[in-house]
């Protein structure tokens, strides 16, 4: 929709009252979304930056506040903070996808060469088992991070089929290197849902891997499944230190991470996967007592 800059008198409202009336997350009954208010209180003038289907919609919006617009200008080049953020993320995503794609070929060559060395030189492999193991783990970590970037930047279309959720959880755990100090429990009572099995495996791998890192490789992860009729709820609870309150609201933000080796795309990718399935993902955490992710997915 086009953007407009309009001017009018304050109309007897205080600055605080008008600022409280702004809700950038929704539009009103006329299809108008106000992005920003610019005040000139000395001259009793207010400038509004708003998104609307037409000038008439802007006029109708202001009539609700007993305001008559003095001037309305369509400003196609105005970019709000929300639009700038979206464009910035798109640019970063395209660049990251290009870099990640370019990294895949040399990573595959290194991995294949490592396997050939171990096959052709079994004695060397035995003597340097720890070194080979470290290289392999580092390769897996890099590949995992590259996959995270690609999954976030260019989400693939879902391949839906009927699958048992516990089977997906089991396959996810097999894909991980679980430390001896970590105990994972999950129910044996299974439920069938229509989903993309590979996508949900990626989601569980990310969430369980994050939990292991949060607990520093020692603790308990409890996975619970509840039948909610048309949907199922999955809870993944760890016994880690929890997330500080001031960081909770940011954990699904792209590029936000508290780890030096993290991409900041793992949890945002999980959110995209869940929302692609028509579900929701939320988090609750208690500092010093752990974190729980709650995923709700429709069965069909």
Descriptive account of the structure:
By secondary structure, this protein is of the alpha+beta class. 43% of the residues lie in helices and 24% in strands. The protein has nine helices and eleven strands. The chain has helices at residues 15-20, 55-63, 81-120, 122-127, 129-153, 165-174, 197-214, 245-248, 266-276, and strands spanning 3-9, 33-40, 45-51, 71-74, 161-164, 182-185, 192-195, 219-227, 231-238, 280-286, 290-298. A five-stranded mixed sheet has the order 6-8-9-11-10. A four-stranded antiparallel sheet has the order 2-3-1-4. A two-stranded antiparallel sheet has the order 5-7. Strand 10 (280-286) and strand 11 (290-298) form a beta hairpin. Helix 3 (81-120) runs antiparallel to helix 5 (129-153) and helix 7 runs antiparallel to helix 9. The protein is elongated and about 85 Å long. The two termini are 34 Å apart. The model has no long low-confidence stretch (mean pLDDT 83).
């Amino acid at each position: 929709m086009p953007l407009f800059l309009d001017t009018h008198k304050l109309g007897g409202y205080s600055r605080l009252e008008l600022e409280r009336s702004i809700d950038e997350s929704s539009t009103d009954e006329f299809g108008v979304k106000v992005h920003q208010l610019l005040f000139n209180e000395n001259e009793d003038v207010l400038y509004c930056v708003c998104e609307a289907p037409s000038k008439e919609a802007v006029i109708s919006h202001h009539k609700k506040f007993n305001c008559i617009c003095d001037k309305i200008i369509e400003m196609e080049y105005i970019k709000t903070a929300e639009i700038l953020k979206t464009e910035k993320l798109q640019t970063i995503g395209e660049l990251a996808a290009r870099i990640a794609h370019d990294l895949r070929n040399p990573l595959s060559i290194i991995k294949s060469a490592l396997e050939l060395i171990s096959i052709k030189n079994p004695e060397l492999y035995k003597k340097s088992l720890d070194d080979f193991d470290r290289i392999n783990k580092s390769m897996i970590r890099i590949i995992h991070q590259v996959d995270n970037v690609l999954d976030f930047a260019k989400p693939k279309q879902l391949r839906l089929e009927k699958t048992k959720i516990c089977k997906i959880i089991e396959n996810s755990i097999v894909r991980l290197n679980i430390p001896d100090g970590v105990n994972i429990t999950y129910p044996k009572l299974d439920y069938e849902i229509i989903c993309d099995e590979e996508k949900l495996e990626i989601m569980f791998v990310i969430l369980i891997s994050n939990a292991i890192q949060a607990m520093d490789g020692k603790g308990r992860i409890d996975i619970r499944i509840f039948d909610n009729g048309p949907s199922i709820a999955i809870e993944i609870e760890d016994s880690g230190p929890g997330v500080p309150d001031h960081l909770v609201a940011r954990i699904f933000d792209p590029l936000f991470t508290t780890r030096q080796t993290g991409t900041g795309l793992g949890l945002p990718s999980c959110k995209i996967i869940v929302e692609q399935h028509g579900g929701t993902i939320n988090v609750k955490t208690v500092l010093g007592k752990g974190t729980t992710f709650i995923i709700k997915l429709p069965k069909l």
